[in-house]
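Example (one chain per record):
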Amino acid sequence: MGAIWVIAEPGPDGGLARISAEAATLVRELAAATGREAIGIVVAPDPAVAAADLATYLAAVWAITEPAATDHAWSAVAARHVVNLLGTEAPDAIFVGAGADGRDVAGAVSAQTGLGVLVNATAVAWTDAGPAVEMNVFGGKLITTSGFTAGRGIITIRPNVTTAVQADTVGRIEPRTADGPAALPLVRVLERVSEAGAKAPIEEAKIIVSGGRGVGGAEGFGLVEDLADALGGAVGASRAAVDSGWIPYAQQIGQTGKIVKPELYLALGISGAIQHKVGMRTSGAIVAINRDTDAPIAEFADLFVAGDLFEVGAALLTRLRARSG
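Predicted structure:
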């Protein structure tokens, strides 16, 4: 049997990015089910920490030291090494997280090797013809299953479609080199800007309080934020709220926003159209507050409260504050 690769992204602290831990878990499960070898690849100025993290998920990790990743875009650097590895190796599939960097890596590797790409996978199975990739299309209205005509290719995995679970044993780490010509120029990073006071990304939040068109305006998100603070959670939003300019795009959840998987998802004034459902349907518990009992979210919420979101939300906030006090 062959091998399945996962290209791992180092996080800001040098450790393994969460999206790569999820992808590694999926790759390990696929490899175990098909008798293939699961191999993780880390490219970084100092890959030690990320490689050690990745080895808790996979039996084999290739660590590539690349000083250029310090001041150049990681995706271009990683793509160059992956392409060079493909000059001597032929994995049955290559997986990478469907974040901004992962998409860049997939595109660059595809352009240089001719391998096909299936994007934003929500599930992957293995058939006699190769990987069968499930994807949401037409704004989440349809679910398709696709494969590669050549039987192998690159797959980007959407965040939060699987849960990162470490392996029973720690894998081996093997230093590798992948020298070769750079077909594409590297991109120098001139400046990195971090948002002051930025909270943890909503993709990692265990509790999310989300607002939709029903909150009525930017001021309506005051209640959403208060509830999120009282619950120790993050603030999310529907596309309607983002398009109206009430809240930044970084908080948008849905087909064209973030995919989240919190333990609790509290939706205020959100209708629950399919485009939004795609982004939060895997939540542990979904609680919705809406005056419209015919809203689509009433059909899949674990608890649906019919009422004015400001009255119900204010009452809930009072009880939460009383309990914490």
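Caption: The chain has nine helices and 15 strands.
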